[in-house]
Amino acid sequence: MAAQFEYDESGGTSLYFLVSFYALVLFPVTYYLWPSKPKKDDPQKLKKQCQCDPCEIKRAILQAQKPTQRLRHAFKWLFLFGAWALFIYLAIQASQVERDHIEYDPYDILELDRGASQAEIKRKYRLLTKTKHPDKGGDPVEFIRIAKAYAALTNDESRENWEKFGNPDGPTATSFGIALPAWIVDQNNSILVLGIYGLAFMVILPIAVGTWWYRSIRYSAVEVLLDTSQLFLHFIYKTPCLNLKRALMILSGSFEFEEKHNNEIVLRPSDNEELPPLMREFDSEYGKKSKEKPFVYPYSRKARILLYAHLARTDLPPDTLEVDKRYIINKCPQLIQEMVNTASQLVTWKNYGRVAKEPRLESIEFLMRQSPMIVQACWDKAPLLQLPHFTEDTLRKKRHIKTLGQFVKMKDVDRRNILRHLHEKQYQDIMNVLKSLPRLDADVELEVLADDDKKTITAGSLVTATVTLRRGTFQVSEQEVNGAIEAVEEVEETHEEEKTDSPLPHKPKTHVWEKHRKKKGKGGGGGPKHKPNKKAATKKAAPATAATGKAAEDSPQHNGKGAANHVSNNTKGAIQDIAVSKDSGDSGSESDNEQEDNSKNSGSEDNLSSDGGEQEEEEWERLQSGITRKEKVLEGTSKVSHEVHAPYFPEVKQEWWWIYLADRKTHRIVTLPQMVYDLVDEKDVELKFPAPHKGLYQYQLCVRSDSYLDVDYIKTIKVDVKEAKKMEETHPQWDISDDEEKEEGDSDVSDYTTDDEGSDEE
């Protein structure tokens, strides 16, 4: 029996197919286009919001963009409403379609109840014959159906076919329905159907795929042109010891700023009149004209001048150069991230011997330093300009205050005296922004996960540095600071002998403003005379709370950037550390004796079993933590952390951080910089690096912000690398002693010696 294919004449099956296919497209489109609900601003956040002029201008510009966003949301709602209305209509139509296939039932055709007797069947058939016969004016087709139903109930063969195959005539050809309407294969509609197929599969689909492919091969993973990446690679390799101005010049050569590579760039005839005055104004920073290509091209010179104007916070024409500057500044964070990735790629190539030289550590840090400069619109030598209402005139009047840490350490009275020209509301803006700036702390744990002894680092092993980052904020409460100073001073007075023998650093040099306060105190108008001693006590106690002395000097808590604040928040920790330093000498011998006793008893079977159980538990916890980390990686990384106070940046910026290990002695990076996008309160980051040769090394953990200046975190890490374990020349199970060989020889003789041979020997 041949198969028979039938097109859907009534449209029922094709409607089911259309509804199913439409649902497969509608659900993901709805998820993608569903407008997000606008978040209501926190009243506390609005209360602490900065009210400086640049912030107000930025909010006004962002607010002006909201009508466009509302129009887009309204269009999305309208589109989704229409799409779902069409889906509901098609689903209702499909549910109302009658079934084409009806089971053959002779009782129903003869209008009889099941179980009717043969007499009743014959009587009913005679009655229908009188009215349905063609000779009596009936329908011939309907009479054939009646006759066939009568035969199915009275004829044994027809009844058997009906019971087996559902048809009195026996098995029929299998029919398959195609869920396409019959008008598609109709000869009258062939030209229209071919035209639609040709337009969809020969025009629209190739154009869509070609556009996607052309875009994908032109851009890198961070949405930067590959031509720009090649440009960065060439010039960073060419100048491994670059400075900040050279880095800005390379940044200005990005092809994103050229109209040939980017259709969004607009050529303005007014540039010939507006750019020359800016070039003369920034001639000192701009320097001599470079003869290198593409830095001599007009687009690169324009981008470079606009970058310098942005860093100087120069007012530009609002409808021309200001628009171009905002576009360039908005692109810079992505470009700088690509520059850092390119420099890291050169370091990797140098490790594998593919290139002859690599960029120095200072060069990579110069590349990173561009990002906070551009986000905050100020040079790295003036980090106080990040605060609202600060100007160049304010910095000139108080030249002794250059960092955020120095500004935080000041008493509130002195701070208010410096900024006495500001209103109380303006001063409160400064304090709110200052309290929102990030202050980091970190713990580092070095392990060799592949070895049984994870804490011992041997030459050539793969070391995993697990860094726990914690984000806090600056605390500038004067009362807490003074209380912490007095508490630490009391502890130090009770341990004078221990302080003289302790390896704490010497008293640092007194700064200019502290000398000024001493003189003021002697004159009778200042505070008490013992206040400098409190500062010295604070500076001595602060390193005791750090991991190493170098970390205390470099971290933002201790590098003149909120040391008093650190003591105020960690007074108890400082007291405990000083107490521990006192008792460490007395308890050293006792701890050594205890370790010796423990080592003697470690050979017992009970200790072995307990150690084995502990190792298994540690291994299981490590595997579980590894699985958890993999699941988090599969979930994706959020790029929302904390909103940055950046009034001169055109868009809303989130805090991101570069983290890496560096070796200042060799001017090289130990681990490639990783970007941390979601540091809200605390986050664990893993850095892997191969252990160097045997020796004691000092690395630095560097965490650098891409949004703020003078908030970077640096901590010294000591890495003690032991000698690599020697590999055994022979495998244990292959080492056979002489006695075993002799026994094997004797056994071979006994097995293969016969009695006859033994008698001959006798």
TrEMBL record:
Composition skew (Acidic residues), residue ranges: 736-762
Region annotation (Disordered) ranges: 491-628, 728-762
InterPro entries for the chain: C2_domain_sf, DnaJ_domain, Ig_E-set, J_dom_sf, Sec63-dom
Biological-process GO terms, alphabetical: post-translational protein targeting to endoplasmic reticulum membrane; SRP-dependent cotranslational protein targeting to membrane
GO molecular function: protein transmembrane transporter activity; RNA binding
PROSITE patterns named in the record: DNAJ_2
Transmembrane segments: 15-34, 74-92, 191-214
Key words of the record: Chaperone, Endoplasmic reticulum, Membrane, Protein transport, Transmembrane, Transmembrane helix, Transport
Topology class, membrane: Multi-pass membrane protein
Keyword Membrane among record annotations: yes
Classification via Pfam families: DnaJ (PF00226), Sec63 (PF02889)
Top-level taxon in the UniProt lineage: Eukaryota
Basic residues compositional bias, start-end: 506-538
Occurrences of domain J (ranges): 105-166
Name used for this protein in its record: J domain-containing protein
Keyword Membrane: yes
Primary location: endoplasmic reticulum
GO CC annotation, single: Sec62/Sec63 complex
Stretches with biased composition (Low complexity): 539-550
Record's subcellular location: Endoplasmic reticulum membrane
